[in-house]
Design a protein that fits this description.
alpha+beta, Helicase, Ruva Protein, domain 3, 4-stranded antiparallel β-sheet, about 25% helix, DNA-binding, class I DNA-(apurinic or apyrimidinic site) endonuclease activity, oxidized pyrimidine nucleobase lesion DNA N-glycosylase activity, EC 4.2.99.18, glycosidase
Length: about 270
DNA sequence: CGGTTATGGTCAT
DNA sequence: TGACCCTAACCGC
């Protein structure tokens, strides 16, 4: 689930459920027990998302909880309190609702300098109003690294993951192995604004949809061979299936340690 | 029921 | 580049 849109949505949902409220903080699993206890009974002040990182602050302390969901972490809010613990729950927050954090890559209580250290190594986040896309461009336009790898590098761009990188490159017709320095400025501007638009949709819907209305295969319905990962996409995990635009079989290849999917017909060097 | 895979990242080599 | 971390869903037997 978790690319940047998931974390921004989560920050908003947690704030709606808990901000300004006194919360019960526990670690049923025990691995965050000491820290959870120190926060127990405090008023939750606010939440903030930067890229794939979530920060939760509480009244009366400068320290913040830093959460990173990793590949399969979840942080689910459900109504009511006193729910039985099912499976491994690292951190549970309760006020009127119950929020359970499972399988995070990181769940830790950090001092302000430690928070600053994390933020300092993040590139601009397309979902943040304070983002400066020129910072990313500065890295990209002088790099020989493939654009498909640069988009995944959180020091270059914060919040983009394996689905958005594949989909934005498809939508912008960019060959994924093109070196950063060979991307024209106007193309980068288009990639950035498309990421902003796509990820904002992702926050609203809680899923990644990237297919333009004119390419929706409405008559036929979705291809039964395409696996369901929650959204409608052009190329992600569609290896071997015909491209929704040109019919060329979608290809797959590992780039930056992850499976990259692209259409060799629609995405060419230029 | 075991093996594989997953929208991520860190650390050691 | 590879080992490793964390959890759950899915697949084939």
């Amino acid at each position: 689930m978790p690319e940047g849109h998931t974390l921004h949505r989560l920050a908003a949902d947690l704030a709606a459920a808990y901000a300004g409220r006194r919360v019960t903080s526990t670690s049923p699993q025990g691995r965050f027990a000491l820290e959870a206890r120190r926060l127990d009974g405090r008023v939750l002040e606010g939440t903030e998302a930067y890229g794939k990182h979530l920060f939760v602050s509480f009244d009366g302390t400068e320290e913040q909880v830093h959460v990173h969901l990793g590949l399969y972490g979840t942080f689910l809010i459900s109504p009511g309190t006193g729910r039985p613990v099912v499976g491994q729950v690292r951190w549970r927050l309760e006020a009127e609702d119950t929020a359970d954090l499972r399988g995070p890559n990181a769940c830790e209580l950090l001092t302000p300098p430690e928070v600053a250290l994390i933020l300092a190594r993040l590139g601009p986040d397309p979902l943040r109003a304070d983002a400066d896309p020129d910072r990313a461009w500065h890295r990209i336009h002088r790099s020989s690294t493939p654009i498909a790898a640069l988009l995944m590098d959180q020091k270059v761009l914060a919040g983009v993951g394996n689905v958005y990188r594949a989909e934005v490159l498809f939508r912008q017709g960019v060959a994924p192995m093109t070196a950063g320095r060979r991307i024209p400025r106007v193309r980068w501007d288009a990639i950035w604004s498309d990421l902003v638009a796509l990820m904002e949709i992702g926050v609203e819907r809680g899923r990644i949809d990237t297919v333009r209305p004119e390419h929706e295969p409405e008559a036929m319905g979705r291809d039964p061979r395409a696996d369901d990962h929650g959204g409608e996409v052009y190329v992600y995990r569609r290896e071997g299936l015909p491209c929704l635009v040109c019919g060329t079989p979608v290809r797959r290849r590992e780039v930056a340690g992850r499976n990259l999917f692209w259409c060799p017909g629609c995405q060419r060097d230029r």
